[in-house]
Amino acid sequence: MDSTKTENSPELSLFLPVLDEEENLRPMHAKIRSALDLLGKTAEVIYVDDGSTDKSLEILKSIAAEDGRVRVISLRRNYGQTAAMSAGIDAAKGEILIPMDADLQNDPADIARLLEKLDEGYDVVSGWRRNRQDKLISRKIPSQIANRIISLIGGVPLHDYGCSLKAYRRDVIQDVRLYGEMHRFIPIYASWAGARVTEIPVDHHARTMGKSKYGISRTVKVVFDLITIKFMASYQTKPLYVFGAFGMLAFFVSVLAGIWAFGLKIFYGTSFILTPLPIITIVMFAIAVQFFLMGLLAELQVRTYHESQDKAIYTVRERIGFGMCDTTAPGIRANKVKNPPAHAGGSE
């Protein structure tokens, strides 16, 4: 048994959300230990218990007592996989972050292949369950459709966004904030930050113990989150564009309805009270004004968000030719490089 406590800055951080997986935890951890021992890298394994109602937490505590690389986070209640993933990311200290499921369907032996792909210069390597061992109608077909739509809208062509087994470099994931069901979109967030993203086929095993926590009902949530992703991708720093577009459309309808109403009045003698066009004109004009004002408020919020936190609207991969004292981190507003004062008597 490895009783040595994990180093403060391990090379790898594995984190696994857990929800009622008491039958799978020990076999899963045995596979993880074997995989890590073969790698020969310093590592930590973070289990995030997401409000389990079985004996999962007790088993995790026992595993932590036996293996010094294990850390356990117990959430107060079931918050969902995205929140559990976020807790794992926040707690991880490694240079490479690797999430995976705890239900024995992901194979820890694939971690070595993910790391090999990272060594080729990629920042994110996503697992692709090419031979997925799940039900065809309720899981595989909806997933294939969703993955194509996500790839099209998100601009990152992956076959399998739903595969939890991925590898990330810390600098492309440490500032990601997750909500809803957005853990599956992390490669898109990373790509926005300039990360190099790729995928490799990984093994996928049929579930033999426990029950799946996912159903087709999650598709609706994914659709809503996808709408959010598209909005953030296109208009996160320029919300007035989208609100203004709807405002202009409402204003155009208002003007068109007004012209039509006056045309009927002048050429056909139709009273304004006999047609709904004047009401449409007023209502659509009011809606147009509201859209414009909402866009302006959104612009103020965006600027307040970025400026109050000194948060830049860009990220830097690397800086070349700057002084040694210039240690501006990626994603942080660049400091001005000041020239040293010249000597009063000129150069020596």
Describe the structure.
This protein has 348 residues and is α/β, with parallel strands linked by helices. It has nine helices and seven strands; from the N terminus they run E-H-E-H-E-H-E-H-E-H-E-H-E-H-H-H. It has a seven-stranded mixed sheet with strand order 3-2-1-4-6-5-7, with helices on both faces.
Topology:
Elements lengths: L11 E7 L6 H15 L3 E7 L6 H11 L3 E5 L6 H11 L4 E4 L11 H8 L5 E5 L7 H19 L11 E4 L16 H7 L4 E5 L16 H18 L3 H30 L8 H32 L40
Parallel strand pairs: 1-2, 1-4, 2-3, 5-7
Antiparallel strand pairs: 4-6, 5-6
Helix pairs in contact: 5-7, 8-9
Please tell me what the overall shape is: elongated
Number of structural units classed as domains: 2
CATH homologous superfamily designation of the largest domain: Spore Coat Polysaccharide Biosynthesis Protein SpsA, Chain A
Low-confidence residue ranges: 1-6, 327-348
Structural class: alpha/beta
What is the arithmetic mean of pLDDT? 82
* Helix percent band: 40-55%
Per DSSP, the total helix count is 9
State the end-to-end CA separation: 64 Å
Question: What is the CATH architecture term of the largest domain?
Answer: Alpha-Beta Complex
CATH topological fold name of the largest domain? Spore Coat Polysaccharide Biosynthesis Protein SpsA, Chain A
Mind summarizing the main beta sheet?
Answer: 7 strands, mixed
